[in-house]
Design a protein that fits this description.
- The structure holds two protein chains of two kinds.
- In chain A, β4 and β5 form a beta hairpin.
- In chain A, α7 packs across α9.
- Chain A has two domains: 221 residues, PPM-type phosphatase domain (Phosphatase 2c, domain 1, 4-Layer Sandwich); 165 residues, no CATH class.
- Chain A has ten helices and 18 strands.
- Chain A is α+β, with helices and mostly antiparallel strands.
- In chain A, the strands form four sheets. Chain A has a six-stranded antiparallel sheet with strand order 2-3-4-5-9-8.
- Chain A starts with a strand and ends with a strand.
- Chain B has a single domain, classed as Glutaredoxin (3-Layer(aba) Sandwich).
- Chain B has three helices and four strands, in the order βααβββα.
- Chain B has a four-stranded mixed sheet, with helices on one face.
- Classes of the chains: A alpha+beta, B alpha+beta.
- At the A-B interface, α6 and β14 of A face α1, α2 and β2 of B.
Chain lengths: 392, 79
């Protein structure tokens, strides 16, 4: 299972009028004899500050304790004795869902009072066997499955199944409706984050943009590792051109070359020609080019700047998804490759200063270029990608 | 005849998009679409003086919508 990895993506809608979300998702990676990832989605009772505190505490406590290999019984006992008691209702209460994937081989799902996790295998609903245990007065459901590539686990807070109650639907939409909807929307290329936002958008639509409860969807998807290499800028010293190019092209995976001068150098190295497309698909983004042996050739700074905008949106509400997933301009194509296809990204950054960019009238200069790369790497790390940057 | 319009970062910011539009129109108007091959280029190495275009082997810098007709006359129509 060495080539598989877990892709995790989640997002929340706040209850209409609330600034804080009462649901919380926490992700912990545990390394030891086996690699495991623990994802906890907690939904605090009520809404606003109180719910937010309850859910944050719950998810943090569980993820931290599970990462130390403590049993679920101990976690539940700790939560019960730690959570502040609600003054109105006289109980301390937060529901939770735990998904633990070990070695990308085995998934363990533990759930308490949240809508049950929906598992999709090859895009179709897969019924997981559940066993129930009683811990204190709480009934906890556990399941265990051996995962395969493409397996998708969708966890949600009850805001998801209540969507539309009393508005567009009488009884909300039940778990069965969500299963049907997700089976219909599923595409093997979609990332965990995209699947989560697709479901959330539908919930928001049913709520008529005024969610009656905090709604969170967290998707965990088992996928193949995939590397993408991106080169931007010529090396500071012209003597390093060959070194940089041979390191870059010797890497497995896809290759993206950004920048006019950089692509000329890459073409020379490969003994091929740069063919620039005349077509502007998006007037804001310079056209792409082709070099035989390179998967994608684009302009540099302006294109990367747009990719950064898309990356920031992807981490937030993903609202530009429809732009970059379908359009064919340089920035959209890079975004698709980095956000969706790649799990491991190697950056090859050349530090040559382009004299033309030092013109004070232009909004691009050397320090901006370096900062763009840094910020983009930060965003990609937050997406859970493994990033390696080499400077030349 | 081959004309390349630079679409590198600097030229792009100075309006390559507009120049390509003007060029396509001008070629059509003069019925030269079959005689002239129009394409883009990634950086002609004259970044400080964009927008740059290359007509056959000659690089012309500082093309703008204002001087476009003049340049088109001088470098394209006269040849």
């Amino acid at each position: 299972m060495i080539n598989l990895c877990t892709d995790i993506g989640y997002h929340s809608l706040n209850k209409f009028g609330e600034q804080l979300c009462g649901d919380h998702v926490d992700v912990v990676e545990q390394e030891g004899d086996g690699n495991s990832v623990i994802v906890v989605l907690a939904d605090g009772m009520g809404s606003g500050v109180k719910a937010s505190i309850l859910s944050t505490l719950t998810s943090k406590i569980i993820s931290t304790m599970m990462a130390q290999s403590m049993s679920i019984e101990e976690c539940v006992a700790t939560i019960a004795s730690t959570l502040p008691v609600c003054s109105v209702r006289g109980v301390a209460y937060s529901t939770f869902t735990i998904i633990k994937v070990t070695n990308n081989y085995e998934a363990e799902i533990i759930q308490y009072d949240n809508p049950h996790v929906i598992m999709l295998r090859d895009g179709k609903y897969f019924d997981m066997e559940e066993t129930s245990t009683k811990i204190g007065d709480k009934i906890i459901y556990k399941s265990k499955v051996y995962v395969r590539e493409g397996d998708t686990f969708i966890a949600m807070s009850d805001g998801a199944i209540h969507a539309g109650v009393g508005k567009s639907l009488n009884f909300g939409w039940q778990r069965e409706n969500i299963i049907e909807f997700m089976e219909m929307m599923y595409d093997s290329e979609f990332t965990a984050k995209t699947l989560s936002t697709i479901l959330l958008d539908e919930c928001n639509r049913l709520y008529e943009n005024e969610p009656g409860d905090d709604t969170t969807v967290c998707t965990v998807k088992i996928r193949q590792r995939e590397s993408v290499n991106l080169m931007i800028g010529p090396p500071a010293s012209p003597n390093d051109v060959n070194k940089m190019m041979s390191l870059f092209f010797s890497k497995s995976g896809k290759h993206i070359v950004c920048g006019g001068t950089t692509s000329t150098l890459a073409a020379e190295f490969l003994g091929k020609e740069v063919k620039t497309n005349l077509m502007y698909i998006d007037p804001e983004i310079p056209p792409t080019a082709t070099i035989e042996g390179v998967d994608l050739v684009t302009e540099g700074v302006i294109t990367i700047n747009k990719v950064l905008t898309y990356a920031q949106s992807y981490l937030a509400d993903n609202q530009y998804y429809t732009h970059w997933d379908y359009k064919k301009d340089g920035a959209s194509l890079i975004s698709k490759m980095l956000f969706e296809e790649a799990t491991d990204i190697n950056f090859y950054v050349g530090r040559a200063v382009n004299p033309a960019h030092q013109n004070p009238n232009l909004p691009i200069n050397f320090s901006i270029k370096m900062r763009l790369v840094d910020e983009l790497c930060e965003c990609l790390k937050k997406m859970g990608k493994r990033i390696k940057v080499s400077y030349f | 005849m081959t004309i390349n319009v630079c679409v590198g970062s600097s030229c792009h910011l100075r309006g390559s998009y507009k120049i390509i539009e003007l060029m396509t129109e001008a070629l059509k108007k003069n019925g030269l679409e079959d005689k002239v091959e129009l394409s883009a280029a990634f950086c002609l190495g004259k970044c400080t003086h964009g927008v740059s275009i290359k007509v056959d082997d000659e690089v012309i810098c500082g093309v703008s919508p204002e001087n476009f007709n003049e340049i088109f006359d001088k470098y394209v129509l006269k040849k």
